[in-house]
Amino acid sequence: MIAQAAIKSLMLSTLMLFAAVALAATYWAVAGRTGILLREDNPRLIEDIARIRRGGIYDRQEQLLVESVENSSGGMSRSYLRPSTYSLIGYYSLRYGSAGVEAAFNQILNGSQAAATLENYFLRELLNMPKEGADLRLTLLADVQDALTLAMQDQRGAGVVMDASSGAILAMASRPSYDPNTLDEDWESLVVDEGRPFFNRAVQGRYQPGTAMTILWLAQAIQSDYDLSRLFTEPAAPVQLEPGMRFKCLFQPASAEITLSEAFVVGCPAPFVKYQAGLARDSYAGIVERFALEEATTLAGFPVAGGGASAASGLDSVAESGAARSRDVLGQGDLTISPLQMTAIMSAIAADGAAPTATILSGIRQPGAEKWQEEGPGQSARLMMKPDTAAKLRALFQEAWHNLRGDSVPLGHEVGAKLAMSRSGEDSQLWLNGFALPEGRPAVAFVLVLENTDDIEALVTAGRYLAEAILSL
Amino acid sequence: MKPQTARQESGAFTQNRQQWLLLALAGAFLATNALALALSGSAEQNDWSGLALWISCALLGGTILARFLPERDPILFPIVMFLSGWGWLAITRLAPPYANRQEIWLLLSTGAMLLVAVFPQALRWMRAYRYVILAVALALMLATIAFGSNPSGFATAPRLWLGIGEFYFQPSEVMKLVLVAFLASYLGESAAAFNIADKARSAKARAPRLLAPTALISALSVVMLIWQRDLGAATLFFVVFALMLYVASGDWRVIASGAVLVFVAGVIAYHFFDVVRLRVDIWLNPWPEADNRAYQIVQSLMAFSSGGLFGTGIGAGSPLYVPVVHSDFIFAALAEEWGLLGVIGVLSCFAVLTLRGLSIGLRHCTSAFRQLFAIGLAAMLTAQAIMIMAGTLKLIPLTGVTLPFFSYGGSSLLVSFVMIGFLLRLSSEAP
Description:
A: 18 helices, 19 strands, 38% helix, B: mainly alpha, globular
């Protein structure tokens, strides 16, 4: 006879084996799930990401700039609709990652920050429905962005337009740029492009400020009640920092002796060198601290500018020699700043002395929702100068802009701007730092930097075009 | 047929009702999923002939079984129809070109199952002509060594099939049934000789001599499979041989010795067979080779994780990342698209199948052959299912066998259905 007990023990054993298989399946489906699914070699991860319907990106007036569209393979692709915004919006690519606004707000756009509601859990975790990201509304004004891009034409450089009171970025461009719609096709040539199109010069670019430093020296002079009626002789004398690096007046001064304010308006560097020579040795450190030049000004989520020498190293050079001091006065020392940083300073001048924190996000709209969740300004503004100092500077800027534009186009006195020049070895950059004061609306600061050019006329034309666009809003 | 008593008629009515209810549930499940697959657009599920064929097989099988085997186990047929239907659906989703072939095999398998279930001679022949059947099966396996081919066409793939035109058949699948029948027959007749319960010294002394032929035949089959690099089937044969011997003898040392032998054989094979070394290595640690040699098992585990509790839904997952997913790794596809819930469902079906099969053996206490045959069939199906399911979950090294009823493979489906046919026959016979 067959042993009945053996059959029963076989039953029990097989049941235990089935239970072991069930336990192993439970482990991989529940406990060990996250670890294995997040492995980089999990092709499903890419598929899941490809199925995400990223949120759209709008400008402040809810003009659609970027949308997600279903592609032929069933996944989602990004469609970038406004060429002028390409350099700011950046790109989102399954193969190459993301940059710009797409990278800065990736978590919102891809739905990772969706509220942990029961509905979301049911749809995403249980039913495996693809994620849906929230829409973004930027502080950007597409029309101003278009104007900025048009103003820069194909000139290499950067431009920023900022609401001086709130810090909201109204426009931001970096040239050269690229078309994110054809990123996969163009990638190989873009990464070797000498113009570095992926480099957002407006945020990451570090330029020597050059004669734009005279803005800061003049602000310090006004702030410290310096006698602005004091006259400087030989104002038009060129300043030779090193062989081949000479700075001279933009416009011929009206007389042989001029004040620091007049020197600022006509763009003469020599009086500023003399002015600084009479100051204490730590005056440069005072400027660096007042205008937060050592602190990287950036946009939340955007990469911080790298590679620029800190102002601290510039402080060391102050003690070395007169030539070194002259370099610091004329922004040719170790100090470098970004166009965004310069725009914050210009905002302080345009808005009674306080530099706001730059921000680009205006609102978030959750999937399916109709209303936008408003995003307020960032951190509190940083006081850089007294309101009356800012007011005096504004007047001088308006005068400087009047000198620059000539009388051919009577624009009025709503705009102030100052042209500056800096040199980096053989190359030179032109800065146009200014503001516009639209009637009944907050002041707007703007900065344009063009690389490898000494075409002042082109920069002034660009500035005028941009200012008109701002004032016509 | 003998006239039925009122009690028998009542029992048969209840059994038939159970059968039809379970078949209706299975049909509803399949129809819902087929519709979902069609709506998902991930596979060309516009051909509803497969579902129609499944319904026809279920109706035909259910009717014939109800008519000719009123006392059968009412659960077995619905379960295997459910599993094979689910398998067909999965194949339709994973490898649409193979779906039609699987449908034809399902039709043939159902017919073969009904034949062996309805005609009592089949059971008798398996016992009476065991040597002839065994010789034919061994000859067919030998033929694969000389004339074997592989439907995939890969030169390096094991040549385990005999092919005539577009028709391929795997003799090792037939050997599973034949081996179980031979062992049941031989051990059944000799049971008293080496049953541990038998205290007679003379009987125990004769045990090795009586055991030798079965061990020889089993070893021969295993060697031939190893020769053909069908190591999964070789392991399966050995495991079933050990289990049947254990049941026949009641001696736990058979299992212990078998485990030691498998371990020793594994160590030796590890050093002599590249394929064994590969499978053991990736079983122990697949992660460093996740993109290379361990790609299949890692993708299988990812499929389980991707499915989570409720699965992605049919057509919504990515099980095609698992190589050979429609065959050996269909369990991983099931886990991805039906989740842990589906896995537990299939496991439960196999567990019920095992318990019903072993229970049939338990009931046949008056016939050692019938008892051992039922147990052997149940053990073969169970061991095969556990081996591949545990393999895809990295519980044991991969063995490369199919999941009975579920995986793509005509020979496997046919033989598995014939096994169920015999179990149905055995269940309907009074002990």
